[in-house]
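Good morning,

Attaching, inline, the backbone tokens for the sequence recovery test we're adding to the shared suite. The designed sequence is right after.
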């Protein structure tokens, strides 16, 4: 009986069809080999660095948005100082999990909120997402891939994106409920949202003593549950979450939540 089932199973998909089928499926999930090098931080930083020099020095595209009450007063200046981090290595904490979620593929429309540089966008390309379907939006921009805009008033139509990335941006908001409402508005029903927040064990006073100012909201996000509560009943399925276990709360790290939403 077992041998009959095995033989019948082999006949379900002919060999002549199986190989091109898996080849095409692999093309959807993985970019060509040269683009896969963009997954490597050093290579991605080199590519991003060349593009940064061209757009800032040759085309002089660098722009910044006017601040607003919804944005922390030190946000723009703090992020300008962070432009040296061109490869955005921590973006992999969100991009890698996104790349294995079955509902997302090279045809998905992706929005990255607050990428700062092109590093996160190049990382998405390296993980198989179509560059033409990726947009970034930030308070500062030098790249034609990054629109100038505020996460509290996104310059996109309703139901525009299959996935929205909020990589270490929500903590800068003075009105986090308004920001997450905008994410829900521009995301499609069933879209995937990926949120990253820095966890820092230092107090606000210690951070001010260290940096000379406090970047972001003084009411800091300290757990994944807090992230999910901003999205309330719109949270559908949680694909992945990460936070420090109690014995590691003395270390700087990341809070990660990746989930689908319902509208």
């Amino acid at each position: 009986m077992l041998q009959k089932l095995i033989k019948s199973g082999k006949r379900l998909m002919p060999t002549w069809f199986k190989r091109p089928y898996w080849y095409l499926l692999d093309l959807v999930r993985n970019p060509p080999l040269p683009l896969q090098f963009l997954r490597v931080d050093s290579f991605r930083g080199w590519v991003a660095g060349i593009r940064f020099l061209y757009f800032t020095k040759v085309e002089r595209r660098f722009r910044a948005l006017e601040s607003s009450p919804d944005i922390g007063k030190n946000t723009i200046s703090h992020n300008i100082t962070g432009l040296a981090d061109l490869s955005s290595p921590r973006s992999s904490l969100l991009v890698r999990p996104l790349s294995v979620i079955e509902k997302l593929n090279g045809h998905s429309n992706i929005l990255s909120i607050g990428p700062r540089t092109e590093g996160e966008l190049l990382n998405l390309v390296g993980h198989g997402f179509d560059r033409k379907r990726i947009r970034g939006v930030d308070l500062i921009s030098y790249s034609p891939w990054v629109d100038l805009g505020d996460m509290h008033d996104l310059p996109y139509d309703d139901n525009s994106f299959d996935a929205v990335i909020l990589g270490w941006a929500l903590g800068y908001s003075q009105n986090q409920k308004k920001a997450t409402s905008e994410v829900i508005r521009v995301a499609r029903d069933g879209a995937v949202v990926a949120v990253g927040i820095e966890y820092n064990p230092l107090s606000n006073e210690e951070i001010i003593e260290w940096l000379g100012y406090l970047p972001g909201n003084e009411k800091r996000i300290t757990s994944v549950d807090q992230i999910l509560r901003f999205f309330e009943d719109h949270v559908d399925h949680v694909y992945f979450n990460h936070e420090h276990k109690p014995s590691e709360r003395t270390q700087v790290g990341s809070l990660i939540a990746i989930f689908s939403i319902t509208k």
